Amino acid sequence: MAAADRPVGARVHLSLNVRDLAQSVKFYQAFLGVPPHKERPGYANFASENPPLKLALNEKPNLGATGAGSALNHLGFQMVE
Fold first, then answer.
1. Predicted model pTM
2. What is each CA distance from 19 to 61, 67, 77, in whole angstroms?
3. Which parts of the chain sit beneath pLDDT 50?
4. Which letter, b or e, does each residue of 8-36 get, where b requires 16 or more Cβ atoms within 10 Å of its Cβ?
């Protein structure tokens, strides 16, 4: 099938800053019903088909402290075939 004939879709990409990565991974694994797609120190991501979501978690232990930023890291769309 030629590239132009392949169906293309998108999933929402949401990147969050979290205080406790292990606790957040446990929560989102239960919530989404899938294990993390990728994990490394201070980072994990999930690739869910239903809902179509790519969720990235970035550990920021000082999150919420004065001047330490917010929970939202960035938003986007991931194109998928």
1. 0.79
2. 4, 15, 24
3. 1-2
4. eeebebbbbbbeebeebbeebeeebeeeb
